[in-house]
Design a protein that fits this description.
Blueprint: E1 4-7, E2 10-21, H1 26-29, H2 35-44, E3 56-66, E4 71-74, H3 95-101, E5 109-113, E6 133-137, H4 138-141, H5 151-161, E7 165-168, E8 172-175, E9 178-182, E10 191-197, E11 200-204, H6 213-216, H7 228-242, E12 245-248, E13 256-259
Parallel strand pairs: 4-5, 5-6, 6-7, 11-12
Antiparallel strand pairs: 1-2, 2-3, 3-4, 8-9, 9-10, 10-11, 12-13
Length: 267
């Protein structure tokens, strides 16, 4: 059964589409990380490192639902066997089965928030969710040259033709208690999703945060960020502004991570 976390009356469900090793040595992905930072990251998140020292990634989407109302899905996983991520990700994904296990009918999904347009976040977008608007930042669409060359024909064109592509500029309220936040840097139009009820907050991070190293040091650059300085600013500002909160992460070992970590060693 998929894991859940509640924020007021909002249930957030972590849906695992697949998992597998990263395509390059992890030290190449975080070339500035120190040995001490790696040790602390592995202590906090042991499921993210394999016995032979590789970076092990789950690929998750998150469903947000108030009661039995419509569903907001954040990201759409790696996708089926012929998905655009097939050249490097462990397709086929199992998102349809995960939704069923969570009691979610794809027709109940009314909004799919694509945090960004990298292939491991868009795999099931489109036909699986016939009643859903697919929400993308305008800045992301303006930078299509950065993404898979088949993206316009395989995904964006069909969504436009079906009237299912919703383009937004910056922070946007989706439903009571749920907002999209502009968090650029990993990509030009990266966005995250904040669920809040009183002092209880949960941030679905997308790739604003890809490894526990970036909780240990939010300024630490990831090699596959388009603009590392802007990404670090987005991360730092949100973590400073929203703390304490729960982080809902596509790629950390556990889908729901408290920040600050009560077991963390001082830096």
């Amino acid at each position: 059964m998929p894991l859940t976390h509640t924020v007021g009356s909002i249930t957030v469900t972590a849906l695992v589409d697949g998992s597998g090793p990263f395509f390059q040595p992890r030290a190449e992905a975080f070339p500035d990380a120190t040995d001490d930072q790696w040790r602390e990251a592995d202590r906090r998140d042991p499921d993210s490192v394999t016995p032979d020292g590789r970076w092990w990634l789950p690929f998750r989407a998150f469903a947000l639902r108030t009661g039995d109302g419509p569903v907001t899905l954040v990201d759409a996983g790696i996708g089926p066997a012929d998905a655009l991520a097939a050249s490097w990700a462990p397709v086929p994904g199992r998102l349809p089965a995960e939704l069923a296990a969570a009691g979610i009918d794809p027709t109940d999904v009314r909004t799919v928030v694509l945090t960004h347009l990298h292939t491991d976040h868009i795999g099931w977008a489109g036909p699986l969710f016939p009643n859903a608007d697919h929400l993308v930042q305008r800045a992301e669409l303006a930078a299509l040259e950065l993404f898979h060359p088949e993206l316009p024909a395989r995904l964006l064109g069909p969504l436009r033709a079906a009237g299912q592509l919703r383009v937004v500029d910056g922070d946007t309220t989706l439903t009571p208690g749920v907002r999209v936040l502009s968090t650029p840097g990993h990509t030009p139009g990266h966005q995250s999703v904040l669920a809040q009820a009183g002092e209880s907050r949960l941030l679905v991070t997308g790739d604003l945060l890809v490894h526990t190293l970036q909780l240990i040091d939010p300024t630490l650059a990831y090699a596959h960020e388009e603009d590392a300085r802007t990404a670090a600013t987005s991360r730092t500002v949100l973590l400073d502004t929203l703390t304490p909160l729960t982080l809902a992460t596509p790629h950390l070992g556990h889908p729901f991570t408290p920040h600050p970590d009560p077991s963390a060693h001082p830096r």
